[in-house]
Amino acid sequence: MPDEQKQMTTLSEVLNKLEERGQANEFKVTDKGLTLDENKYFQPSELKIIKTYRFEGESNPDDESILFLIEASDNIIGFIVDAYGVYSNIEPEKYIRFIREIPVEDRDEQIIFS
């Protein structure tokens, strides 16, 4: 019987793995674009979603969230975490429109954890 790999099941486990890989840069969506430090802003055309992790709570819909792993044009890899009920600094419609404009490298890379 082949060795079974332990599958990540929680958001915190995925975040820990990203930190181990040096990809724990948390992007923030602002009116000016996506940023890490508010010194440089990226527009959707300068980004690509390289992986999507969805987490679905078994008993509580409030536990549902999504993590987008994003690569910027300067090769920085980071993430955005979003609850299914959007809580952001800008209007939800702008946030959703911005995220939808980011090209997705491979839609088959979606992983759902529950």
User: How many runs of DSSP E, i.e. beta strands?
Assistant: 8
Which strand order does the major sheet show? 1-7-6-5-8
- Beta-strand percentage range: 25-35%
Q: Assign an overall shape.
A: globular
Question: What structural class should be given to the helix and strand makeup?
Answer: alpha/beta
Given as residue ranges, the uncertain stretches (5+ residues, pLDDT < 50) are: 109-114
Quaternary organization: single chain
Q: Describe the biggest sheet? A: 5 strands, mixed
Domain tally: 1
Order of helices and strands: HEEEEEEEHE
Helical fraction:
10-25%
What is the compact description of this entry?
By secondary structure, this protein is α/β, with parallel strands linked by helices. The chain has helices at residues 11-20, 92-101; strands at residues 25-26, 28-30, 33-35, 41-42, 47-55, 65-72, 77-83, 111-113.
Describe, in plain words, how this protein is organized in 3D.
The chain has 114 residues and is of the alpha/beta class. The protein has one domain. Helices cover 18% and strands 32% of the residues. The protein contains two helices and eight strands. The strands form two sheets. A five-stranded mixed beta sheet has the order 1-7-6-5-8, covered by helices on one side. The chain is globular and about 35 Å long. It starts with 10 loop residues before the first helix and ends with a strand. The C terminus is likely disordered.
